[in-house]
Amino acid sequence: MSSNFSLYIFCIVIIAMAIFFIKKVTSCLFKTILFLILLAVLVYIAFTLGVL
């Protein structure tokens, strides 16, 4: 249980850092593409863990 909790915390931190980076550096279209890639990776992780 602790392992899954730490993984969720790690994912939240990565999302927050990615959003901060995207807001500071990139244009609107590039933001959308990176967000979709990030979302796809998180869905893959969720399916791998059996959450979804």
Your description of this structure?
By secondary structure, the chain is an all-alpha fold. Helices cover 88% and strands 0% of the residues. The protein is built from 2 helices and no strands. Helix 1 packs antiparallel against helix 2 (28-49). The radius of gyration is 13 Å and the shape is flat. The two termini are 17 Å apart.
Name a few traits of the molecule:
2 helices, mainly alpha, 52 residues
Quick structural gist:
By secondary structure, the chain is mainly α.
State the helix count. Answer: 2
Mean pLDDT: 80
Computed CA radius of gyration, to the nearest angstrom: 13 Å
H/E series = HH
Low-confidence blocks of residues: none
Structural class: mainly alpha
Helix content: over 70%
List the helices and strands and how they pair.
Layout: H1 2-25, H2 28-49
